[in-house]
Amino acid sequence: MGIFNKFSFIFLVIFLSLSANAQVQRHRFVIQATKVKRLCKTHNTITVNGMFPGPSLEIKNGDTLEVQVVNKARYNVTIHWHGVRQMRTGWADGPEFVTQCPIRPGGSYTYRFTVQGQEGTLWWHAHSSWLRATVYGALIIRPREGKSYPFPKPKRETPILLGEWWDTNPIDVVREATRTGAAPNISDAYTINAQPGDLYKCSSKETTIVPIDSGETNLLRVINAALNQPLFFKVANHKLTVVGADASYTKPFTTSVLMLGPGQTTDVLIRGDQPPSRYYMAARAYQSAQNAPFDNTTTTAILEYKSASCAAKKCNAPTPIMPSLPAYNDTNTVTVFSQSFRSREKAEVPTDIDESLFFTIGLGLNNCPPNFRKRRCQGPNGTRFTASMNNVSFVLPRNFSLLQAHQQGIPGVFTTDFPANPPLKFDYTGNVSRSLFQPVPGTKLYKLKYGSRVQIVLQDTSIVTPENHPIHLHGYDFYIIAQGFGNFDPKKDTSKFNLVDPPMRNTVGVPLNGWAVIRFVADNPGVWIMHCHLDVHINWGLAMAFLVENGVGELQTIQPPPPDLPIC
Known about the structure:
Strand order of the largest sheet: 10-9-12-17-14-15
Number of strands: 32
Largest sheet: 6 strands, mixed
Structural class: mainly beta
């Protein structure tokens, strides 16, 4: 056997052994209105298969998912597989008018993609208007057959989905805000696995119970599925050991509190090492924007030791012990927590950078257009809220998706002149002149060559108000190599870069009045949106998109669109 044949044979054996255990999993998601009662009131809530939260999908690294989505609701819908790399399968990514036109009422579309090289907790959610308030669920990726976790195997695993509930139709909330130009009404409750918990009216009978036994080590897969609110999460009297985030393993570290921005996931081990009893796990807001109204309620679930359970015998269960949560504006706790993350192994961080980008992110205020009545301009001082990156407020197309327009060469849908740097340098976190409050609307993309090594400085601004923004990039994981406060200074802040073991994430919390630096290699062709995961800010335009060009040959080229791709 010649040396090349020998190598080919070895590669073939490796390939066959990797793919031998890979499975194709098929599911059907029916989007439908379902009667859901919360806070004493019944609503016609949009759900998947009548379930709230939606079904948990459990797969192995290497498996392929085929999910047929049938829309029996009265709204357009798409589903996004949050954090899935979607290598060459951009058509399955899901953001409305970015990679596909929405699935119209009565229509259907099958999402097909393979999850490769990712393990841990991701999730799926609607990516159309505010439907993701109730259309979401966990996506759990276990190691391949014969492989194990890089930590002791937990006795049991429990997804913990943190959500946000409006005591009205969330679609009406966002439509009203779009009409008035004001901030949308805040939520009425937070939820754990879709239940508000004991501290809300008409809720304590349904409070989520999480079982544990003395001496057990269990895995909690915590997901922030809230629409607009970063959340603190704590379990009374129990420490949590973080072992993963956004489907990447981390160096384990122990903490008593988590903070997750919307979109983020954190895997933690919890030990049954306390006296058998009942303990509240609780979540409430981390509110970084000053003077902005927010939902200040607290959601709870109960960590219940088996021996303290009343399931088997009639008894008065002890009142659960309540954790003390951080203050709503406790940025110090958030900083300590976010700076504790490290990749488990030495990271392959790109070093020779081809594209060095600097993006300001933040809010804005548009002056009231002359043809608008006063009631349409109910933002501060008779304005309308807006938001932007590098002073461009992102506008989604309406007649084509961006990926279709790119693939089919349709002119006039987008331009590729998104600025690599702010059009104007200013004191980003200082007192900003009112003349900079009005961004320019546009559908501008930034073009990246296949394989280019990219660095982005994400800089918060104090326009209107500084805020912690969870920025999510579709189609990619990235390394967070540094974070800090104030204005990013390349002269002194470059020394803070961690190029050894920075954490790999798909969503980064850009600190309040501060900055974060991320790096990735543009190895996935397609159109990929990067946006703030506070949905109120997406509506206002806090987004941009990358157009990553095809490379050479089939493996560096996006697959052709599937035949059932919805048309606009």
